[in-house]
Specification:
Number of helices: 13
CATH architecture of the largest domain: 2-Layer Sandwich
Oligomer: single chain
CATH class of the largest domain: Alpha Beta
Helix content: 25-40%
Amino acid sequence: MPLLKDTTLGIDFGTSNSAMAVRQGAGLARMISLEGSAHTLPTALFFNAEDHRTHFGRDAVGQYLAGTEGRLMRSLKSLLGSALLQDKTAVHNKMVSYQDIISLFLRMLVQKARDELGGMPARVVMGRPVHFVDGDADRDQQAEDALRQAALDAGFAEVSFQLEPIAAALDYEQRIAHESLVLVVDIGGGTSDFTVVRLGPERMARAERGSDVLATTGVHVGGTDFDRRLSLDLLMPLLGFRHTGPTGREVPSRVFFDLSTWHLIQWLYSPRALRDAQNLRTDYSDARLHARLMRVLHERLGHRMANTVEQAKIAASLADAEAPMPLDWIEAGLGAAVTPEGLAQFLLQPLEQVVACAHECVQLAGLGLQGLDAIYLTGGSSALRPLRQALKAAFPATPQVEGDLFGGVAAGLAVSGR
């Protein structure tokens, strides 16, 4: 297959969703269709135990929710930089590491790019958060190295990296008419990243843009953390979280935290984890709560609960109205709901961390609250109403501009490859 010498492929491998864009020559970046006509797809794999095939994206989630026998994996990006990345698990009767599974997902993207372009792009630029791991430079480098190796194993010949908020800034720059100082806010599934950058039409042609980037910051808080918080507050009590047992002590909480965390759910289905959960029975005063927990684990319903929380979060934010979370597939009549007020309350603590990181970025850039021309929002979780309200309270005089929430980073990565 030919090497496309004047072509750059940008890959936004996200915690929750992934996207790709291509730039050929001096043209504009364009998105690549990944699933039908959709330019993004969930970063999800489903290992179907019935047809022994691997399914990706919406198809993977749909297979799982339809009750097909198999294993769903999501949020694998969250394992980068952790010891769990090299752990092995059984997939289609073989033992493979989670890094190998990331490579399998990237291999699917390689094939999509080949089909779209008729060859392999000469340059591949992958996005990365400001910090894969907060406060640990060695583990952060290990995470990038592992992602690079996964991409090479998937079939890419050479891979470089660009910070995701800088990529988003470069995409935004294609659409502004005058020079601006912008705070780029990129809220993804696993991280929140910020860049203060000087953008403008006359700056686009410069080969060296390092002096235009005034500051970057990031924190390992994102959409999946928001989901976990809602799950712990609204759904896990229905399984025994914060339940007081016969000795007057609460049921040990680790199983509920893991069950509320996308990339940890799969570990709860192992024989040892199931035995540990069964042994919690004596810690419960209410046997119904423990029975619900065991049904969720035995029937592998954890990802379905997480999906229910995620969809309710989105619905409550977009409609600014109460969103139900029915759990009748666990027990008839079981369920909860999230209100806009409850959403803001439950997310208050993680949003305080996000806004503090934004403030830090502006301070590192040497700017005051009046020094910004715009706040540019990208990343799926930046659509959340409580987040936008928190940023408005923190930067009341700065207009917020919504970008391509799911495709902007991929497009900027393709642009950055020039």
